[in-house]
Amino acid sequence: MHDPKELKNAGLKATLPRLKILELFETSEQRHLSAEDIYKIMITNGEDVGLATVYRVLTQFEQAGLLVRHHFESGKAVFELNEGSHHDHIVCVQCGHVEEFCNEEIEKLQHKVAEDRGFKIHDHSLYIYADCIKTSCPHKN
Amino acid sequence: MHDPKELKNAGLKATLPRLKILELFETSEQRHLSAEDIYKIMITNGEDVGLATVYRVLTQFEQAGLLVRHHFESGKAVFELNEGSHHDHIVCVQCGHVEEFCNEEIEKLQHKVAEDRGFKIHDHSLYIYADCIKTSCPHKN
DNA sequence: GTTTGTGCAAACCATTTGCACGGAT
DNA sequence: ATCCGTGCAAATGGTTTGCACAAAC
Asked: Does this UniProt record's set of keywords contain Transcription (chains A, B) (predicted)?
């Protein structure tokens, strides 16, 4: 199980569903998970959780800065751990495969564009950038 | 009204809803429109159209390469005219305001990242890139 | 014991689909 | 006469909400 302190720091009671969901993000191979993904995994693990709770917890985690929400292509939102370091995404438009990458030059150029246009970059925000490249990838689905 | 040729070229019959919707994109101040946006405008203009038709036409236009679909932040998709020239988007996370920009350097860097990772860029695709910067902007909602 | 979180079911919103009618060829 | 496109209503899929019960402090 997971250390409850992380949750307390975020001002959230350390309840079972919250601990489990946070743990899931920290141990899963897949970095990007949807509410449905999480729900299914938990049910499979024999935990008695409701889909509504999963949605509520994910939103709370997002607001607390523990997770970042993305929308990519599909109709459904996916979440990933917010580890501070900003990164971009490459998304395959054919199979949905997602890869992450960091590129300082791109970041700098983007910041410059935003500033030139009077946009404010707030460093505390999780949402400063969330770029994704959409293309086709060499992975089979 | 609009020139039917553009539709014929795309292999689509020049019907009234299609002509009107295409015209809307070419004359509207707002470049980015949702299905709901379009439906409301048409109803207001006294046209007898169904929301389902709007969705169908938008999808057809996307497949025909006339429009590009984006997902940005909100739960709803928005569309814009596909004018060939690729551009990125800055989206304000507070008011939803969208601006477009082109930056050759960013494009090159992104292409390089994708190629280095074995992703294939298909030039005929509308979806090669659709990056957006999410930040807060100086515009009131 | 009080507050806060939870599961369930119903509600909601964007989008899609089935179907019978209507218009173009 | 056939084919395709349309409007409407119903279905769908992701997400949210109301409420009574249960868990955390």
From this structure: yes
